[in-house]
Amino acid sequence: MPKPHFENPKHEAEFLRHLERRRTPLKFAFAGSATATHLQLAESEGYQSVVLSVEDEFAALTRLAADLIPPATIVEAGPGDGRHTITLLQRYMQQWAVENYLGLDFSEQLLQHFGSKFRTHFPGISMASAIWDFETGPTSRVEEWRRDDRVLALMVGHTVGNPEAPGIVLKNLRHSLRRKDFLLLSVVLTPSAEETVDSILQPYRTRVFENAALEPLRASGLPDDGAYFEVTWDGSAVIGKAILERPATMLGLDLEAGTEIECFRSYRFRETDVQDLLRSSGWSPLIISARRTSEHTAIIAEAR
Predict the structure, then answer these.
(1) Which of 9, 42, 167, 180 is deepest in the core (most CB within 10 A)?
(2) How far from 89 is each of 86, 97, 115, 244, 287, CA to CA, in Å?
(3) Structure pTM?
């Protein structure tokens, strides 16, 4: 494993600002040396159980195809390691064409890894990528890249559950696209009343997940044995905290033993909440719960 580090000085400076408030965004767990720990996590069974099967998404696309041919131009926000994307596009291309693909992500290193895998699997697709922090504002990259045809935007595998403000992210994506573009969104739903807290948290109580969540803090100067990791469920999100075992200096910030730093938060949604988020951020839900299970759902929306 590489020595813990940030991807660039800008990331380090921003991370420090969040560290000062003891709550660091999950996006840093995909960049710098955390790219490697994320890729390890992406191979794990627990992670795959959370990001869900592509069947939910494909069922929604099939419903869309009853009225029109799905777009051949695809933009994705947060493809990550690419496993989910590749599986979905392989299914997609059994029915419909894909000519152009743009992948947008926070980490240049992760995009490079993803781009190599994508081009190996899809040599006939024109593929481009660009850096975008979808939590900070819209991007002009889509408009610069696209042609005149409609675009299908992907935010799949519960990507929308990981930023601090999912509604702002959906609004930023909407303002990066044109009216009448489509969005395929897939989410993990709020657990049923019968599901126990232990079953909710089980995928997160693994060493590989802990390593991935703590890696940005290690890049800040946290010793390997300097904190223990705790995951809890608060009724709407899975929350991970690092609790310092002893005093530590991280990016010049002196922290006392017992300091709690929230380094992971993943929201769960009720289906009605997802629809409300979409409507309030400039989207009109078209296809809802095409293949709903008790845990996951996929929704297709149109940009207003």
Answers:
(1) 42
(2) 5, 10, 14, 43, 19
(3) 0.95
The continuous run of DSSP H or E covering 31 comes out as none
Transcribe 60-119 into DSSP letters. Answer: HHHHHHTTSPPPSEEEEE--TTSHHHHHHHHHHTTTS---EEEEEES-HHHHHHHHHHHH
Q: What three-state secondary structure class fits 164?
A: coil
What pLDDT, in 10s, does the model give residues 145-170?
999 999 999 999 999 999 999 999 99
Share of the chain above pLDDT 90, in %: 88
Range(s) within the chain of domains with CATH label 3.40.50.150: 49-189+269-303
Burial class (CB in 10 A: 0-12, 13-18, 19+), 148: exposed
CB atoms within 10 A of CB 295: 17
pLDDT tens track for 166-217: 999 999 999 999 999 999 999 999 988 778 999 999 999 999 999 999 999 9
Q: Phi and psi at residue 298, in whole multiples of 5°?
A: -125, 140
Cα-Cα-Cα-Cα dihedral sign, residues 303, 297, 164, 194:
positive
> Mean pLDDT throughout 89-102?
97
**Residues in Cβ contact with 150 at an 8 Å cutoff, skipping those fewer than 6 apart:** 71, 73, 180, 181, 182
Cα(239)–Cα(288) distance, integer angstroms: 27
C-beta of residue 242 within 8 angstroms of C-beta of residue 214: yes
CATH code that applies to domain 49-189+269-303: 3.40.50.150
Give the range among 40-54, 99-113, 132-146 with minimum mean pLDDT: 40-54
Token duo for residue 24: 């660091």
Amino acid at 35: T
